[in-house]
Amino acid sequence: MDKADKHLVNPQNTIEILKKFDVHFQKKFGQNFLIDSHVLDKIIRAADISREDGVLEVGPGIGTMTQYLCENAGRVLCVEIDKALLPILEYTLADYDNVNVINGDILKQDIWELARKYNDGKPFKVVANLPYYITTPIIMGFLENDSPISSITVMVQKEVAERMQAEPGTKAYGALSLAVQYYSKPYLAANVPMNCFMPRPNVASAVISLERYDEPPVKTKDEKLMFELIRASFQVRRKTLWNGIKISNSLNYTREEIEKVLTDMGLDVNVRGETLNLVQFAELADRLGEL
Asked: Does domain 223-289 have CATH number 2.60.40.10?
């Protein structure tokens, strides 16, 4: 039997493995196993994986996507939090010699150390079918912490993917949109129906690829202040920018100061934060930082 015949994306193979190891789905880890090869092909293409690449996979599960990654990448490192899945991965990945699996919480890993140990110190391409309950902390952890990561291609809840690439003034636009777009260029690679998973999830999914910037697309003198303003602006949607800043615990500006800065920027004093783009938030932070 060749490797393709053992692919877990084949539902029958997945069922056999789950029975063999008496696997029970762990809701707390958000486990849903992919059973559609077309989606896996789209993920590999979106991540632009070649034999020159080292891939970091978060939450490999039973190894469904890992098998495809091993067949396309130079090396693959998997971080799996569920200890019970380790013997299954050892079995399902036995035919591949370019993969390592470690047990741990990705949020507690030193990515620089992992890159040195498993990828010759070079940046990883992250590929993952992320547990939906912890999508944002994982992605923002990679982006904010200057990790050795060149791109992130992940399966996420469709609604979250839409928020990541949303534009000002749209319903999906928010603090996550601005944070992701400050660090990376998002691209929605595929929509994924619920019937592509086992067990079937309750929400639609999407594959989004984030190409990390070497330098942010806007410059600000105070990145921390900019993100405090962004968070304050979206604390209360449909309210004016001033109202959001007023109730923030981390900002201390008077209404007069805010209104003068907005006027100097050519904006209405009653502007809503959800209409400002990244360039405008950077300018707002710079002007307020000078007060």
From this structure: no
Report d(CA 65, CA 9) in Å as an integer: 8
- Environment class of 126 (CB within 10 Å of its CB; exposed 0-12, middle 13-18, buried 19+): buried
CB 162 within 8 A of CB 192: no
- Which residues neighbour 139 within 8 Å (Cβ) at sequence distance 6 or greater? 130, 152, 154, 180, 210
Rounded Cα gap, residues 184 and 260, in angstroms? 32
Ramachandran region of residue 44, left (φ > 0), alpha (ψ -120 to 50) or beta? alpha
| Helix, strand or coil, per DSSP, at residue 43 | helix
Residue 84, φ and ψ in degrees, nearest 5: -65, -20
- Residue 27: its pLDDT value, please? 52
Distance between CA atoms of residues 215 and 229, nearest Å: 21
Give the residue extent of every domain in the chain.
Answer: 3-212, 223-289
Residues 6+ apart with CB under 8 A from 124: 54, 55, 56, 77, 111, 114, 115, 148, 149, 150
pLDDT at 26 over 80: no
Both tokens of 107, joined, read 């949020």
Which of 120 and 248 is assigned the larger pLDDT? 120
d(CA 44, CA 66) in angstroms, rounded, equals: 11
Strands (E), the chain: 33-34, 54-58, 75-80, 99-103, 124-129, 149-157, 184-192, 197-198, 205-212
Fold of 3-212: Rossmann fold (3.40.50)
Range in 1-15, 171-185, 262-276 the model is least confident about: 1-15
CA distance linking residue 26 with residue 128, whole number of Å: 17
Dmax (CA) for the chain in angstroms is: 74
DSSP state of 48: T
Beta strands 54-58; 205-212: pairing state: unpaired
